[in-house]
Amino acid sequence: MMTIVITGVTSGIGKSLMQMFLEKGERVIGIGRSKERLIKLEQLFKERQFKHYDLVKADFARLSDIDEAVVYIKKRYNYGIDVLINNAAIVPQKKHITEDGYELQFQVNHLAVVKLTHGLLPLIQMVSGVVITTSSNAHRPAKFVSNDLEATRRYGLLRSYARTKLYNILFTRAMNTYVFPKTGVYSYAVHPGLVKTEIGTKDTSRLYAWFWRMFTRRGISPDEAVSTYKYLVYDHARDDACYFYLCEPEKMSKRAASDAYRDALWQATNQLLGLDFEH
Ligand SMILES: NC(=O)c1ccc[n+]([C@@H]2O[C@H](COP(=O)([O-])OP(=O)(O)OC[C@H]3O[C@@H](n4cnc5c(N)ncnc54)[C@H](OP(=O)(O)O)[C@@H]3O)[C@@H](O)[C@H]2O)c1
């Protein structure tokens, strides 16, 4: 039985991922930001008679919530984590600054990924596990602006979102360059495809929510979107590829493949969060 941690399990792809791995007989620790939605999910899991699950509340808009979640998981699952799936993300229409002082998308979609991965790394390292981060082909138009990493100068929901999804790939590549050789922990980023979820309706205008629903009408269901994660966890023989779509290596943008951007983001993020992956 594998032990798998997944973020953003109260809806969309994360919820489908958690159910898929529970159906496969794995032990799954799901992280969600809303107590009410976690209670609802627990009811569903009880009805489905799943046994080996845990639900942890952590709102990534508060970095201290991540510290608390890490302390809890480390204490309870001290025998190791086989897979961490960083899946939670948000695309708010208006710019919000968190109580930690960061733009909300930058914090939830990027900083939280790095912080949680760093916190759980000792457990993942124990079993030479893997880290999978949900990115997106929406990263393609994203620019890398080293003196405006948060993209707050001219906030636009898609501009900021695209940058955070670019960061997900750059982070994945940095993990494989700097962390994998020392720990054996390999990282992947996944484009799940266009998926019919509610992500574009959360903290957006009615018009934007309508547009998102129209846009995703041709998308796949969250249950269909889990195939690449399943493939990476059970069937993939590791090679140098790290960005996947439909169970195949996917082409990333030139900026995502840039070593200079990889290193600049790695250094800036670790400095912002006061992290040291080397020790
Ligand atoms: N849908 C697509 O077409 C598509 C395409 C490419 C990539 N993606 C990526 O797929 C991943 C999952 O998105 P989705 O489409 O499944 O949308 P979703 O259903 O909205 O899932 C996002 C999850 O993140 C959680 N979340 C949001 N803010 C959070 C916070 N502050 N702290 C902790 N968790 C938070 C949400 O919690 P709540 O349930 O409480 O809202 C939700 O469970 C994201 O990384 C997204 O960028 C999606």
Radius of gyration: 17 Å
* CATH homologous superfamily identity: NAD(P)-binding Rossmann-like Domain
What coarse outline follows from CA principal-axis ratios?
globular
Ligands: NADP nicotinamide-adenine-dinucleotide phosphate
Question: Please, how many helices?
Answer: 8
Low-confidence stretches: none
How would you write the strand order of the largest sheet?
A: 3-2-1-4-5-6-7-8
Brief write-up:
The chain is of the alpha/beta class and 279 residues long. The protein has 8 helices and 8 strands, in the order E-H-E-H-E-H-E-H-E-H-E-H-H-E-E-H. The longest helix is centred in the middle third of the chain and has 27 residues, at 157-183.
Structural summary, described in words:
44% of the residues lie in helices and 13% in strands. It contains eight helices and eight strands; from the N terminus they run E-H-E-H-E-H-E-H-E-H-E-H-H-E-E-H. The protein has helices at 12-23, 35-47, 63-76, 104-126, 157-183, 206-215, 227-234, 259-273; strands at residues 3-7, 27-32, 53-57, 83-86, 130-134, 186-190, 243-245, 248-249. It has an eight-stranded mixed β-sheet with strand order 3-2-1-4-5-6-7-8, with helices on both faces. Helix 3 (63-76) packs parallel to helix 4, helix 4 packs parallel to helix 5 (157-183) and helix 5 (157-183) packs across helix 8. The radius of gyration is 17 Å and the shape is globular. NADP nicotinamide-adenine-dinucleotide phosphate binds at residues 8, 10-14, 32-34, 37, 59-61, 87-90, 108, 134, 136, 192, 194-195, 197-199, 202, 216, 219, 222.
